[in-house]
# Entry
Amino acid sequence: MSDLLYSEEEEALRAAVRDLLTDHCDAPGVIARTESDTPHDLAAWKALADGMGLAGLLVPEDKGGQGASHREAAVVLEELGRAVAPVPYLTSAVVATEALLACDADDLLAELASGRRIGALAVALHTAPGGAYTVVRHEDGALYGELTAIADAAAADVLLVPADDGGLYAVDASAVTVTPQIPFDLTRPLAAVTLDGARGRLLGDAETAVHRALRAGAGLLASEQLGLADWTLTETVRYLKERKQFNRPVGGFQALKHRLAQLWLEVVNLRAAARNAADALATGEDTDIAVAVAQAYAASVAVHAAEEALQLHAGIGMTWEHPVHLYLKRAKADSIAYGTAGAHRARLAELVDLQAP
# Structure
């Protein structure tokens, strides 16, 4: 059995990423970006990808990456979740990168690993691993069609587009029309992508690449949800220790202690599930089961943690200036990203041959 505890190297990585995000993704700055036309924080992305080399964690060293594993990427995503950082790490450094690892595209893979280019898989964010997804028409060497709900498409330099001939094509973002859509989570923008005769480079088999990419996305999304839940719990405990009613800290009231204790248990269990999914992706052992378990559990915990944070911060939690609304919106959006909890439970039942009566 693998050791799911964090190694010294992983803790050092966490500290470095947290320090960087403290400088680049403070709450007022993130809120201000959601009100602007440029929600992506490309300065923070550059610091992560270029300065720290984190965009290439999943890419082997001989292909221009860092040669790390999904466990290290999971640590990064925990910290990104804690900061609700508006950067395309999950979509480019994980999902698009995993798709390219399933294809013969070492040059493009190296560009994503270095952070010189940002990639996005042109599959709707809500698509579960193994689920149906929309493809475009391939005709006379050109691509035609529209794809919607593509996460971080507005920040991408290259789009990985599945076509009806079974191929996955790399299409330059300048060759398509990207139309922003209004997302619930303003820190992870969605867009519609229209291809009208765009030329693409055939990379490989779409079904294999898309499944691998979505599975990694779902598995590591649990780490982002863990970071989000952990931040909301920690901040709620801190606030209730400081906030006073009847000349005593609100956190001393027994009913609130019970609620926080229950939430702590849920977050601890989520940490185990998320770490197991990351380790399974790294080792290749029981990967589908571990990912399904993590996503069957993660969404409800992240949403519960954010809802409790909003309620227990009382009036101040309802204000736009307080960042808790960012966490609730991210938690709600993540609850359907890469498949709902129900879809993953159904998939898990198939994997372990435990069908409903």
About this structure: The longest helix spans residues 206-242. The radius of gyration is 20 Å. The chain is about 55% helix and 15% strand. The chain has a mean pLDDT of 94.
